[in-house]
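Teaching assistant's notes for section 4

Start the section by putting this record on the projector. Ask students to predict, before seeing the second block, whether Adenylate kinase will look compact or extended. Collect guesses on the board.
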Amino acid sequence: MRIVLVGPPGAGKGTQAAYLAKNLDIPHISTGDLFRANISQGTALGLEAQSYMKAGQLVPDSVTIGMAKDRMEQPDAANGFLLDGFPRNVAQAEALDEILKAGHVQLDAVLDLEVPEDEVVKRIAGRRICRNDSAHVFHVTYNAPKTEGVCDVCGGELYQRDDDSEETVRRRLEVYHTETEPIIDYYRSQNLVETISALGKVDEVTAKAMTALKK
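Reveal the predicted structure now:
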């Protein structure tokens, strides 16, 4: 299967992508991983992306599209893939259509993870990270530490990242609504969209996603 995963920040896309890709036996292709891999390997696209990033500029669509195209042409993606974070706007969606058309394949589904905006803010703004080890993550509501502000694992100080502040989260949501959400209508016109609620336990959401994809 060839799937695009869409949803606002805090919808759990990364978590669901990993589970779905494993269940479907297809590679999980995330924009973040694409950038890290190309930059660490020193590819032409990676170096170009890095130059924009160092200058504090947005990486052009053409660079992101090129990275995604190269990754989708790898042998392990011959029978399908799950795209997470790409396409991010309609221009990228149109480019993806052209890439697939050239390869004589097409998307099977666009899975839209739906989460109320207030829940997104609650999920992200409630995160607390350990200063000693960023892998130690807590949440003031869903996974509260035994002692407020103290990591259960190592006793380090817990803090809220600047990116996780409510103000920043709401700005990220505005960007999502403006730039990314329009691709849902774009794909809906192709009868590809399956919308599911991303509320509930991880395995419950995965089950709903698998049921939707079976359609």
